[in-house]
Design goal:
alpha+beta, chemotaxis, Chemotaxis protein chec, Surface presentation of antigens (SPOA), 4-stranded antiparallel beta sheet, 2 domains, disordered C terminus, single chain
Length: 325
């Protein structure tokens, strides 16, 4: 019925039902997260996977492997339909920025039953059939879920505020009315494996809460353009007040101790260098240019003739006895 209504709407013969769980694809509502959303969300999901793995390993006294497998945007109706029934779904309050909503955490029938089996000392075989969970099993899963919210809150603490709505068991998610069927949700799937226990769990978060939280965080930190502009301004200000030592270095002249001892006012030291021979220009002790000596406006000056592509560090002074460089 829903598909027929949607096809009629597309052909112009009618309108699709507003509350239909099946929605036509729209390029204006892509199924993939935008980059500015995807990176922080995936980082938080990776952190949650690590925390959940550690928690389940301690709870089951064995090694439990948890890994994010996919992240996509879905409607709330699609999210609840994908979970199915019977199930092991729990709700949590989500707030981010100025938005609030309800999130879903679902163990799935296979993982939920296998987890109970391992906690009771079994090998983690999933439940056969689809009988659902007994009241005692629901209470045990509620306790485990409440504790599993701790690594979830830690993983999203810089983005969202998560609170246990009520550890009540939701056996039939498709019947939930906690959000509009067309509300957009981030649906994250996690693969879990431990011995015979293998399956997928899902986490649904309201997109509006995540967007509002990240927009507020970006606003508090400043937009990238403003940050770059401020950094360039500070760098330019620092460079204006920076100073370096520039020195002209002639070729070394070797003098004996006798020549040095005979020095007095008026003594001329022969540099053994003509006017056109290059001299090195050192910046903070590193030879970066070559030039020739001359005059500029009645003062001595150096004209740069070459830029050294590989700056030469200042050579250490010689330690020869009886010689001074």
């Amino acid at each position: 019925k829903a598909i027929d209504a949607m096809l009629k709407a597309q052909s112009g013969d009618g309108q699709a039902e507003a509350d239909s769980p099946i929605q036509p694809f729209s390029v204006l509502r892509p199924s993939q997260l935008a980059r500015w959303l995807r990176i922080p969300v995936e980082t938080s999901l990776d952190a949650f996977a690590v925390g959940l793995s550690e928690f389940l390993s301690m709870e089951t006294r064995g090694s439990v492997w948890v890994q994010p497998s996919s992240v996509e945007l879905v409607y709330f109706s699609e999210l609840t339909q994908s979970v199915g029934a019977p199930s092991a779904t729990f709700l949590l309050d989500v707030s981010g920025g100025d938005q609030s909503g309800v999130g879903l955490f679902d163990w799935g029938l296979d993982i939920g039953s296998a987890l109970l089996e391992k906690m009771l000392g079994g090998d983690g075989e999933p439940m056969k059939g689809s009988r659902g969970f007994t009241s005692i099993e629901q209470q045990v899963l509620s306790r485990v879920t409440t504790q599993a919210y701790a690594p979830l809150r830690d993983a999203f603490r810089e983005m969202l505020t998560l609170a246990t709505r009520a550890p009540e068991f939701e056996p039939s998610p498709p019947m939930l009315k906690v959000a509009s069927p067309q509300s957009r949700y981030i649906n994250a799937l996690f693969s879990i494996r431990s011995g015979a226990m293998e399956g997928t769990i899902s986490l649904g978060l309201p997109l509006a809460c995540v967007e509002a939280a990240l927009e507020r965080r970006q606003k508090d930190r400043g937009t990238p353009g403003e940050t770059d502009k401020e950094s360039k301004s500070m760098l330019g200000s620092d460079l204006k007040h920076a100073s370096v030592t520039v020195a002209a270095r002639w070729k070394r002249v070797l003098l004996s101790m006798r020549q040095i001892s005979e020095m007095k006012e008026g003594t001329v030291i022969n540099l053994m260098q003509d006017r056109e021979s290059p001299i090195q220009i050192c910046v903070n002790g590193r030879a970066m240019f070559e030039g020739v000596a001359g005059q500029a406006r009645g003062n001595m000056g150096v004209r740069i003739t070459q830029v050294l592509s590989d700056p030469v560090p200042e050579s250490p002074t010689s330690g020869k006895h009886g010689r001074v460089q």
